[in-house]
Amino acid sequence: MKDQKKAEALAAERMQLLAPLLAEGLDPAKAREMKAQICKQTGLSERTLRRYLASYRSEGFTGLKPKGKGRQPSEEILPTAVLEQAILLRREVPGRSVAQLIQILEWEGRISPGQIKRSTLQERLTACGYSSRHLRMYAESGVAARRFQQRHRNQLWQSDLKYGPYLPLGESGTMKQVYLVVFIDDATRFILHGEFVPVMDQRLVESAFRQAIQKYGVPEAVYFDNGKQYRTQAMTRICSKLGTRLLYAKPYSPESKGKVERFNQIVDSFLSEVALEKPKTLEQLNERFEVWLSECYQHKPHSALPDKQSPETAFRSDKKALRFMDPDTLADAFLHSEKRKVDKSGCISFMNRKYEVGLTVIGCTVEVVYDPADPTELTIEYEGRAPWRVREMEIGQRAGTRPALPEHLGASMTDTSRLLEAAEQRHQQRKQREAPAVTYRRVQAEDGHV
């Protein structure tokens, strides 16, 4: 390629696509899943992605640079009239492939079989602005993507999950991948909270959200993607109680969350550095990440901020007041609720633990309200009764005394059986209804006839 800068920029773009696939210890199933996701987002074929990987592993960064095509197609190879007809065919049905365009032109007798190569026609269509990618961009529904930025801190928060390194966290030291959950302020690019977690779980996302609120106040709005860790009923209830507007990005549009996506790219440099130290635990990894975040991002000048301020300075110097909540109200906002059926011993099983809720609700389905951060104490709600708190049941060496049966559940004292009395009364009624059977032999004998 003649333009060396353009070649390096294209190679750098390809390198960013391949970066998740180059992680050490990546299992084949996860690699296939990531390849399919990259192909879906970029429109590349899996064959092209494999070619990029092979070129990088054999030649390094240089292998990702596009190779020169030798000679350029001349006017004689692709006449103007033929190009105009190809453009007309593409405009009629934008989904037509280059091979289909050539086939139609051959069938119509405008070109001879084998006269034009697909690469030649594709290059000329791209130069004229009629490639399938160009037309797909205009055919997509919705508004055009534009840059946006809030004016003050805490007006909008963004969050995302990022694949992290592999750590020996499994049984017998098997390697397991960890994930980074991060919350970023839209106006100042300040990282409100970020930590590596062992699994992609909604409770860990909510925990990070809660810690960010405890440190920097309640945001006016939050902006998430459509991952199952964010699009939950619990998150909707949390934001409703906090008075925070809950927004979700359009599916398959990572550009709408550009700020947090850009930060994820910056984190790649940290992952490259920390891989040299090979941390063994999450605590060691998070300690290193906290130091790196403070020195290499939070206090570093940011080109997108006024006067190239650092995110820390921009957030601290903003005049917009922070809105905090008292601990009880905040804890109530993050409560979860689930239904459980009480067994015959007056207990429920919850999160692999036993809780004694009482004999008066045996066989009933109760509502369990709990704090995911502290499941040792639960609140039980049941219709017609005031909520009550229960703690995890401790099983001792001796059986406890069984509670006395409530008075309204005890046996009623009586001297007679209502069932037998009712049966006797019904039997007498049946006998009265049944008339004696008529015997004609008896009637004839009484009249003197035999």
TrEMBL record:
Short name of one Pfam family: HTH_29
GO molecular function ontology, one term from the record: nucleic acid binding
Annotated ranges, domain Integrase catalytic: 148-319
PROSITE patterns assigned: INTEGRASE
GO biological process terms, semicolon-separated: DNA integration
PANTHER family: TRANSPOSASE (PTHR35004:SF6), TRANSPOSASE RV3428C-RELATED (PTHR35004)
Protein name, entry field: Transposase
